What does this fold into?
Amino acid sequence: MISPLAKPVLTRKRGPVYSLRPTLLILGFLTLIPLSTHAQVDTGAIVGTVQDSSGANIPDATVTVTEEGTGRKRTAQTGQDGSYIISPLKLGTYTLTAEKQGFKTSVQDHIQVTIQSRLEINPKLEIGSISQNVQVTSSGPILDTQSSSLQQLVGERAIDKLPLNGRNAVFLAQLSPGVTIAQNDTRGLQASGSFTANGSRRTQNDYLLDGMDDNVQVADLVNQSQFVVLPPPDALREFTVQTNDYSAEFGHSAGAVLNLTTKSGSNAFHGDVWEFLRNDYFDAKDYFVLPTQRKPEFRQNQLEQPSAVR
It folds into this structure.
């Protein structure tokens, strides 16, 4: 196939010869784009400024973040203004260490990096030996001051502990501000957890799974679902529901952005096995049912085979 960017060059004995120089130049330019421009869809970031006890910025300090579950490390050097940025970061719990010769090492642990979060942490270094550590204990949750998007974070505890009809975590999106259930009809429109955000249609929502497009190409009017794959709640780590002021990497739809992420492994083997049972034997009889009438039969079992993850 001939590239539309190719330039024809006429010769005497042969037919047209196509020069691929423009195409190669474009491809070469694309390869020079740095990895830092990748969209931060299913990751987070930690930014900040390293300062001394007087508030002066410290250049050339070493900032290291260590994932507590796996021991993986990411390192950055502060600039002349003492600022640093570590991005993208896989979702998880991290320990941040800031150090420089002539100062005590600052250590802050149990930093939770969530979807789309851009946490600002400003370590303070005290004069002393680098072998001396100053343990920093956060008095409260770290606020995300770097993003203006309106979003609701649904964490692992809420996904695991709150009751879900049909083990469908999408129903939890209806707890977000500006979100309501979709219009019900005789076809069971609400069975899949469909919802509307800020008055938009349910088909205008954008579904992402681990940073990948999870939208059906054609609206499913039979099963009433707009997503392709939905893992069981036990496999989900968290998800966000964005309803306004989306970041630049989102542009698929005019409704809400449901961004789900699955759990990742650690240095220890772990897994889940579960069974959820619903049975009419456990249900109370309707108050308005006659004594001679029996409760309607109802059986529902959902079983997950054991699996190990590392």
About this structure: The helical segments are 21-31, 156-161. The first strand starts at residue 7 and ends at 9. The first helix runs from residue 21 to 31. Residues 41 and 301 are 35 Å apart (CA to CA).
